[in-house]
Amino acid sequence: MRSVPPAVAGGCIILFRQALTPEQKRPSIHDSRLYHLCNPRNLRMFPAVYCLPFALCFSILPFTIYHSPRMSSTFQADFDRIALASPEGGIQNEHYHNFLLKQVPSRCDQVLEIGCGTGTFARALAARSNHVLGIDLSPEMIRLARENSTQSSKARGQQARGQQARGQQAGVQEARGQEGGVPPLWFSNLEFQVGDILQFDLPSEHFDCIASIATLHHLPFREVLLKMKAALKPGGVLLILDLFEPQGVSDWLLNFPALSVSTILRLISHHRLRPRREVRAAWAAHEAHDLYPTMTDMRSICADLLPGAKVRKHLLWRYSIVWYNSNS
Questions:
Q1: Which end of the chain is more exposed for a tag (fewer CB within 10 A), N or C?
Q2: Taking the mean position of all CA atoms in its chain, how far away is CA 2?
Q3: Could you tell me if 284 and 85 are in contact, meaning their C-beta atoms sit under 8 angstroms apart?
């Protein structure tokens, strides 16, 4: 796998960004910049000559993001800040949790989530798994994941004990765990660890399900995808939800209904039209060095590494990959 040399990629990105004024940078999938996208002043064309090195570089070489220890520390600092500013998590990602859960077998033994964030999806996976391991680069995200899981499990245990005391058979049956009886106060089957997945030693053919949400665009995609594939059991399922770069007129036109839906979801969930100022600032700082693949990139890589994978574009600037390991 050939990677874009950091000097070439960095130079192309600098040329690309210098061609734009601060208000004309490429639109981001986060709401903090989509309002700039909808401003007609930001749709003016820029000299195409500045984009030629950038376009030539990425048309010849497969899409990849140069990953280094320095970038890892940058991402860690970014998401530590985001965790403190926005502990409730991202509503766009959570909107697709049910879609992903429908792809998971009814009962799994071992499950891995890469980039677990505050642990919302990991807790949903724990309800149908014997053991879930959540890994994230950010210590603050892992701290929130553990705290939220403790609070959720306490509430679940209290509710289950109340149902049992009242003798509501239907409620008791719903609260029963895999072995029967009332679930414990703690998520004994849920584990969170701080770690870089590139340095993490994953056992071969160990997991029934491996999931990753809004994480892989920070990493060398092919390398991580091969590592995930090797750790998946025969018959296991690989679930990826991530962000893509709009490509073509149809993608750009979808930004407007996507922005409307995102605003509605925020009103329902957070009772706000826009994220708070500190949340927008945290995401803007992170987006300054963020890159996203196109759907063409993803379909090409999946055809090469994950034959038979279902690659789907979603409205809220997300794509999904669902792949079942048929090797026996």
A1: C
A2: 24
A3: no
Select from 134, 133, 96 the least CA-distant residue to 117: 134
Residue (of 215, 72, 67, 87) closest to 140 by Cα position: 87
Q: In whole angstroms, what is the distance from residue 117 CA to residue 135 CA?
A: 8
**Structure confidence at residue 162 (pLDDT):** 55
CA distance linking residue 106 with residue 157, whole number of Å:
22
Query: Token digits for 126?
Result: 């724990």
Structure tokens at 231: 């750790």
Q: What pLDDT does 271 receive?
A: 85
d(CA 69, CA 198): 10
Q: Which residues of the chain have pLDDT under 70?
A: 1-70, 88, 152-186, 328
- Which residues 6+ apart lie within 8 Å of 163 measured at CB? 171, 172, 174, 175
Count of beta carbons in the 10 Å neighbourhood of residue 146: 17
The confidence score (pLDDT) of residue 185 equals: 38
Q: Which residues contact 250 (CB under 8 A, 6 or more apart)?
A: none
Distances, alpha carbon 251 to alpha carbons 24, 161, 246, in Å: 18, 50, 5
DSSP state of 289: T
| b/e code 50-84 from CB counts within 10 Å (16+ = b) | eeebbeebbeeebbbbebeeeebebbbebbbbbbe
Give residue 33's identity as a one-letter amino acid code: R
**Tokens 């770069």, residue?**
245
Residue 242 pLDDT:
97
Strand order in the sheet with 190-194: 190-194, 129-136, 108-114, 207-213, 232-243, 318-324, 310-313
| C-alpha distances out from residue 121 to 131, 133, 159, 263, Å | 14, 11, 21, 22
